[in-house]
Amino acid sequence: MRGRFRRLRTRSMAVRPGSGGWPSLSPRGLRIAGWLAAIGVIGLIALAVRLLGGNADGAAILPSPSATPGGPAPIAFGTTLDPATSQVPDTARTERFVVGDTFAYSVAPDAGRPDVVYVEVERIAGGDATIVQAAAEGEQAVPADRLAIAFTVPAENLLSAFGPGTYVMRIRDDPDGAPLAEGAFELLPEAPASS
């Protein structure tokens, strides 16, 4: 028992300054520590991107519909309209379109349905950022039997006119007025590969 206490007393409880409080690492240990530090930094960056936003496919992040009271209503995009409501049903909703799809969109503005709307389309990614259809050029009469602002068109017509890319659509009741509705969609040259 005494022998054990003597051995403990010979050990120093404090480390002298400058004696290198960190254990010395071999070159291989330093390399491993460097790799672990690099992996940690990459993990922190990935976590920050995940928490702060990003859609991981390299495409632009689509703007979200306005949540401001009195702001533009969100446009619902999809592949069909429900004949009973004139709205894009939840089961048909999508914001990505390819040749062969029907491009449908609808919006029920709070202030009622105008008889004529002006549709502006702006490319925000996938080519030069520009207005591809000015509001004054996008005049459309809303069919009398529709309960909402709602239209369908073959997606290939839009691909032919605008080309592939990410777009923001704004619907107005006056070509120079504030938008009644706004939403983003994407036109793809071909169907995305399933993962």
Number of helices: 3
Contiguous runs where pLDDT drops below 50 for at least 5 residues: 54-68
- In one word, what is the shape? elongated
Strand content: 25-35%
Radius of gyration: 30 Å
The largest pleated sheet is described as:
7 strands, mixed
The tally of beta strands, per DSSP, is 10
Helix content: 10-25%
Helix/strand/pairing category: alpha+beta
How confident is the prediction overall: mean pLDDT? 80
Straight-line N-to-C gap: 67 Å
| Helix-strand sequence | HHEEEEEEEEHEE
What brief labels describe this structure?
3-stranded antiparallel beta sheet, alpha+beta, 3 helices, 195 residues, single chain, 7-stranded mixed beta sheet
Q: What does this protein structure show overall?
A:
The model is unreliable at 54-68 (pLDDT under 50). This protein has three helices and ten strands; from the N terminus they run ααββββββββαββ. The longest helix is centred in the first third of the chain and has 26 residues, at 27-52. It has helices at 2-10, 27-52, 155-162; strands at 73-74, 76-78, 96-97, 102-107, 116-125, 130-133, 139-141, 149-154, 165-172, 181-187. The strands form two sheets. Strands 1, 3, 5, 6, 7, 9 and 10 form a seven-stranded mixed sheet that branches. With 195 residues, the protein is of the alpha+beta class. β9 and β10 form a beta hairpin.
